[in-house]
């Protein structure tokens, strides 16, 4: 069974790496240290270790408070909401402000069809010279 990627903030004390690069809660680098040293710092300051980047050597962890973790989770959720979902199309249509009546009607029908198909529609109107 493949490992499931843990949600942000759910690291706890299960860290598979021996050597970590640790960043303080203020954002300054504390350098590379052994996992036990990182746990000692974590307990000393009442913080939690959160994985930031796993694909680098050594992996980067950050000391964060519960409040910081919560705020970061909210930011990531907002970002995920804003990004288009797979299978969702964004249709773009652009026309001049001096467009003929028939062309405008045709394009409005096309926009209505796209909206019915649940596509996101972006319309740009350029000013005529």
UniProtKB/TrEMBL annotation:
Ranges for domain Translation initiation factor 3 N-terminal: 11-78
Matching SUPFAM superfamilies: Translation initiation factor IF3, C-terminal domain (SSF55200), Translation initiation factor IF3, N-terminal domain (SSF54364)
GO molecular-function terms, A-Z: ribosome binding; translation initiation factor activity
Domain of life: Eukaryota
Keywords: Initiation factor, Protein biosynthesis
UniProt keyword ATP-binding, yes or no: no
One GO location term (cellular component): mitochondrion
Any one GO biological process: ribosome disassembly
Similarity comment: Belongs to the IF-3 family.
Protein name as it appears in the record: IF3M factor
Organism: Ptilorrhoa leucosticta
């Amino acid at each position: 069974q493949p490992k499931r990627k843990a949600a942000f903030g759910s690291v706890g004390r299960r860290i598979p790496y021996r050597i970590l690069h640790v960043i303080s809660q203020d954002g300054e680098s504390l350098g590379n240290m052994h996992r036990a040293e990182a746990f000692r710092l974590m307990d000393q300051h009442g913080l939690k270790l959160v994985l930031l980047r796993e694909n680098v050597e050594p992996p980067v962890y950050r000391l964060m408070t519960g409040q910081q973790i919560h705020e970061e989770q909210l930011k990531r959720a907002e970002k995920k909401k804003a990004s288009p979902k797979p299978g969702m199309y964004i249709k773009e249509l652009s026309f001049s402000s001096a467009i003929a009546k028939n062309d405008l009607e045709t394009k409005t029908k096309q926009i209505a069809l796209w909206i019915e198909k649940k596509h996101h529609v972006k319309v740009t109107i350029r000013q005529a010279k």
